[in-house]
Specification:
CATH topology of the largest domain: OB fold (Dihydrolipoamide Acetyltransferase, E2P)
Structural class: alpha+beta
Helix content: 25-40%
Mean pLDDT: 87
Radius of gyration: 23 Å
Number of strands: 7
Distance between the termini: 80 Å
Largest sheet: 5 strands, mixed, barrel
Oligomer: single chain
């Protein structure tokens, strides 16, 4: 193998390894885990000043809209987490629906969400016809 060819092979290996490493880091950064409400509340001390995603069902009767501020509670049936969110509310956000919030817990025990995602139902159910 000539010196020129050997340099080319080494450069190609380094390039492939670098691209693989960058791809892995990008994937790990985008694969954010989210906690259920009970799981988050049980470990909330370890999440101080950290952005966290929490998933739960929007509790019926808890949605309050005051200007651009939305207050509601998410639950997993065992524990409840009050949430405050300022921003655009997804069309599919509703009481009884699944939601994922991303943000931090404040000192008052309210979750300050920077991001609100409403989960769509995974199963299509056709509308019932009266016939």
């Amino acid at each position: 193998m000539t010196l020129k060819r050997r340099k080319f092979v080494i450069a190609a290996i380094i390039l492939v390894l670098a691209l693989g490493y960058l791809g892995y880091k990008g994937f790990m950064a985008s694969a954010t885990y989210y906690y259920e409400v009970s799981e988050f509340i049980g470990q909330q001390d370890s999440f101080a000043d950290k952005n966290v995603r929490v998933s739960g069902t929007v509790a019926t009767g808890t949605i309050e809209k005051q200007g651009s501020t939305l207050k509601f509670t998410i639950t997993d049936g065992q524990k409840d987490l009050p949430v405050i969110y300022k921003g655009v509310v997804p069309d599919s956000f509703k009481a009884g629906g699944e939601a994922v919030v991303e943000g931090k817990l404040n000192s008052a025990g309210t979750f300050e969400a920077k991001t609100l995602l409403a989960k769509c139902p995974s199963k299509y159910e056709p509308q019932q016809t009266g016939g």
